[in-house]
TrEMBL record:
This is Alkaline phosphatase-like alpha/beta/alpha. The keyword Membrane applies. Residues 741-774 are annotated as: Disordered. Residues 765-774 have a biased composition (Basic residues). It comes from Penicillium malachiteum. InterPro entries: Alkaline_phosphatase_core_sf, GAG_Ulvan_Degrading_Sulfatases, Sulfatase_N. Residues 745-764 have a biased composition (Basic and acidic residues). SUPFAM superfamilies: Alkaline phosphatase-like. It comes from the Eukaryota.
Length: 875
């Protein structure tokens, strides 16, 4: 009996969960955008924002009646109403749980991809504690008030029914009663109420029709209707045909296709080239439209629709520039030998931590967690956190007393002579805050596809990836071997290593099942790989000994015997190795093996939970030690002096110490998610610090340029690499980086200095701050914001401005000036470009406003063009 008294009636309780969950979700939805909404407009249009919620509440209340046993329809109605209530309760709990973890909203459109991916489900389940807490709180509130929403809504509906009945009765009396007594039968109060309701309805309709669509259409979305977005996932296809290119908005572009220019088959291309070289293969048998229709434009013409660097308006090449003088000398003296390449991708690898040093926004934020009297100790602890990174970059840091940090106890000691070690790039940005979209840039030299998740895995990559180029080298050598080396172009005094075959291997200690990564690995040309399923198999050569440390897999150290074997194979078996390795310990939840001793890097000052950052810092120190292990293995196997080690971050990782509003990478465009390290390490290359806002697009051309200039490949391979170099969109970093090209006023018709006429500008866009002077051509950098299809980051290499550009509704425009606000603590936000232009012009100057307008046009063009050159069509 006591239990019956404690439990609320089912229908009122379910209805209360709908009301509490739906209205709480709407309050959170509006609250996240409150600062960017004009207050008066918010007040004016607020009734229209909650109208969908009210209609859903009324609809479910009509469904939720106590069922009568003799009424089957009533049972069905109640079950449907209960189902909608439970769905709303659950969805609202997920939204609040996700918000507590990241400070962001759930994008239901992307949830379908996560729910269909077993590996991705582990990511979702990692937030089960916060979702459970939200479910409990919302359920408790619903239990406490369960009788009131049900009764009040019922009374409201009953009043509407009675009001309608009264109005009908009065109208009937008006028509049937003799005229001398008709007024006595009218219910004036009913008419008054009907009039008020009619006026309110008309006002709501007027507000609904007159309000701006952005952002109010997005803000008015209501649970459970917004969940339908989860069932509208688009799929990619390479079938059919590619769309025609859209006109570039800033200057005229030479759009002549390769076929129109009379391209013939490349002399270096074998008869049956490996995957990745489709656009060079002009053989009609290989390029027939009926066999591969995605190569051709939709209009049925014979123009080739592959990416063409000659007509790319954003490509700026520095291949005509001289190589850095110290590198020239090293290359001429043949002291740089590159027989092997190791490409290390650091998960959530922030530049501010590679190495950790004073003077960055992140370091300053970490110090504020410590009391004033303890900050010197904190400095000395933090600057010793990543000693391997100091030696790899050459950025040796100082402690609290201003003296250089002692690295004698580091796991690896750099054997390179003073002044040697390779290239260290300061200012590099990632091309995506989603890991394997970023890896496409570093391994293949391509921009990713601006859609959610890894749709690229289902498409042909529009440039050859490094494993495919190395496989082409192998294929050419195999052909020469068959022909008795009659066509061999290696000189008699060249290194025998130049004739050895390349072996491309991919390694990571976690699963490769997440978001079709295994398919992408194969598409990039990796024939050999070591992943979680390899090291956890009962038949594994070296089975993992430790426990899994996160929902993806094991610590990187489980790969150590596999890396050692590969390096010994390179040393002893006449094999040239390309190893691609992705770390993972610095991924959420930033766990480390039990035998790894954690340090206390964070203090307790402030309102942010510093435990998450402390875990991340310890995970970064663990990875730094692991890099020391890899460098020691290179020394141990004797191939360190002939191995190029490239180190790059896939993306950063935002915490509450960076940005109190949002954390993580998901739908978070904060700059801390985009600054990454970029290092080209070789013990016989002079140490050169490069300041350039480059991206991982530069990795492929830099590696190819190094192989050619150091004569680390034979003449035939050098011919291929030299032909490939101009094809990539990035610049080679062994030459001075070109961040912009100034217009030449004496060459009005020059491609690089096309002058737009004011009347053309006016026709193209009605904004009032259109520039009329000749345009400087910038190196434009683009970065996709996880999950990929909602927002992009737009910067230009020579200017400090940054734009977060929304690609779909529900997201704001964001502008920052990185020179004046390097930590992006005070961004300018607006729902429309016009509003943002006014704010930028008032706070900064006309140059910033003009750049913003160009960045918006270029960003939208780029997003559209990427779909075209990837051959992506939505179905």
């Amino acid at each position: 009996m006591a239990i019956r008294t404690f439990l609320p009636p089912l229908a009122p309780f379910l209805f209360a969960t709908l009301v509490v969950g739906g209205l709480a979700s709407k309050a959170l939805h509006i609250g996240l955008h409150f600062r960017s909404l004009p207050f008066l407009y918010l007040v004016l249009y607020s009734p229209t924002l909650v109208l969908p919620d009210i209609l859903i509440i009324v609809f479910v209340r009509l469904l939720l009646q106590f069922p009568a046993p003799e009424s089957r329809l009533q049972w069905i109605s109640t079950v449907l109403g209960g189902f909608l209530s439970l769905v709303t309760w659950g969805a609202a709990s997920i939204q609040f749980g996700f918000f507590m973890q990241t400070g962001a909203e759930v994008a239901w459109a992307a949830s379908n991809s996560f729910l269909s991916d077993p590996a991705a489900m582990k990511i979702l389940l990692s937030g089960v504690s916060t979702v459970s807490a939200a479910t409990t709180v919302l359920g408790l509130v619903a239990w406490l008030i369960h009788a009131h929403p049900y009764a009040l809504t019922g009374a409201f509906l009953q009043g509407i029914r009675e009001l309608g009945a009264g109005a009908v009765k009065a109208r009937y009396s008006l028509l049937s009663v003799p005229s001398k007594t008709w007024w006595a039968s009218i219910d004036l109060r009913s008419f008054r109420r009907v009039g008020l309701l009619t006026a309110a309805f008309i006002s709501l309709v007027f507000l609904e029709l007159s309000r701006p669509s952005i952002p109010y259409d997005h803000l008015s979305g209501a649970l459970p209707l917004t969940l339908l977005e989860a069932f509208t996932k688009k799929t990619s296809t390479a079938e059919g045909c590619r769309d025609p290119a859209k006109t570039f908005p800033l200057w005229e572009v030479n759009n002549a296709s390769p076929l129109a220019e009379g391209w013939s088959r490349a002399s270096w291309l074998p008869q049956d080239p490996p995957p990745g070289f489709s656009r060079w293969d002009t053989d009609p048998l290989h390029r027939a439209e009926e066999d591969n229709p995605s190569h051709f434009l939709c209009n049925g013409g014979d123009e080739d629709a592959f990416f063409n660097p000659k007509s790319d308006p954003l490509k700026i090449s520095n291949l005509g520039g001289d190589i850095y003088e110290p590198l020239q000398k090293a290359f001429k003296e043949h002291s740089v030998e590159i027989n092997n390449i190791v490409l290390l991708t650091l998960e959530s690898g922030r530049k501010e931590m590679f190495p950790m040093q004073q003077g960055t926004p992140m370091f300053d934020a970490l110090l504020t967690s410590h009391a004033e009297g303890k900050r010197d100790q904190a400095i000395d602890r933090l600057v010793k956190m990543t000693p391997i990174a100091q030696m790899l970059t050459g950025e040796y840091v100082s402690g609290s007393n201003g003296t250089k940090v002692d690295l004698s106890d580091a796991k690896w000691q750099d054997p390179a002579e003073d002044g040697m070690g390779g290239l260290n790039v300061r200012g590099a940005l990632t091309g995506s805050s989603l890991t394997f979209k970023s890896i496409l840039g570093s391994h293949c030299g391509v921009h990713p596809l601006p859609v959610d998740l890894l749709e690229e895995s289902m498409l042909e990559i529009y440039q050859p990836c490094l494993p495919q180029i190395l496989e082409l080298f192998n294929q050419v050598k195999s052909t020469n071997d068959i022909q008795g080396r009659s066509n061999s172009s290696a000189s008699s005094d060249s290194s025998p290593a130049l004739e050895n075959q390349w072996k491309s291997v991919f390694m990571q200690s976690i699963t490769d099942d997440y978001d079709r990564q295994d398919i992408l690995d194969e598409n990039m040309g990796f024939k050999h790989k070591v992943v979680k399923k390899t090291i956890s198999s009962p038949r594994a050569k070296y089975r993992a000994k430790g426990d899994e440390i996160n929902y993806f897999g094991y610590a990187e150290t489980e790969l150590k015997p596999y890396v050692r074997d590969l390096f010994y194979e390179a040393a002893n078996n006449n094999t040239r190795v390309f190893l691609s390795h992705v770390t993972s310990t610095t991924h959420h939840p930033w766990s480390t093996p039990d035998d790894f001793k954690k340090e206390k890097y964070m203090g307790s000052v402030g309102t942010v939970n510093h435990d998450l950052m402390n875990n991340y810092l310890n995970a970064a120190r663990f990875v730094d030690n692991w890099l020391g292990d890899i460098m020691n293995l290179l020394d141990e196997t004797g191939i360190a002096n002939s191995t190029l080690v490239v180190i790059v971050g896939d993306h950063g990782q935002a915490f509450g110490e960076d940005n109190k509003e949002m954390t993580g990478t998901y739908e978070n465009g904060h700059i801390s998610n985009f600054r990454v390290p970029l290092v080209f390490r070789h013990p016989h290359m002079p140490r050169i610090d490069i300041t350039a806002n480059a991206t991982s697009l530069s990795i492929m051309p830099t590696i190819l340029d190094m192989l050619v200039q150091s004569q680390s490949i034979d003449t035939r391979d050098s011919e291929i690499a030299s032909a490939m170099l101009p094809e990539y969109q990035g610049q080679s970093l062994i030459r001075p980086f070109i961040s912009s090209i100034k217009p030449n006023p004496n060459k009005d018709h020059d491609h690089d200095s096309k002058i737009e006429r004011p009347d053309d500008i006016e026709k193209r866009a009605p904004h009032k701050h259109q520039p009329s002077k000749p345009k400087t051509r910038y190196v434009w950098n683009f970065g996709l914001i996880n999950a990929g299809g909602s927002m992009i980051s737009v910067t230009s290499a020579s200017l400090p401005y940054r734009l977060i550009l929304p690609l779909r509704e529900g997201f704001e425009y964001v502008f920052t000036h990185l020179d004046k606000d390097p930590g992006e603590l005070h961004p300018l936000k607006a729902w429309t470009l016009t509003q943002l232009l006014e704010e930028v012009l008032s706070k900064y100057d006309e140059d910033a406003s003009e750049w913003l307008e160009e960045a918006e046009q270029v960003g939208k063009w780029w997003a559209s063009n990427q779909r075209r050159i990837w051959g992506y069509r939505e179905a």
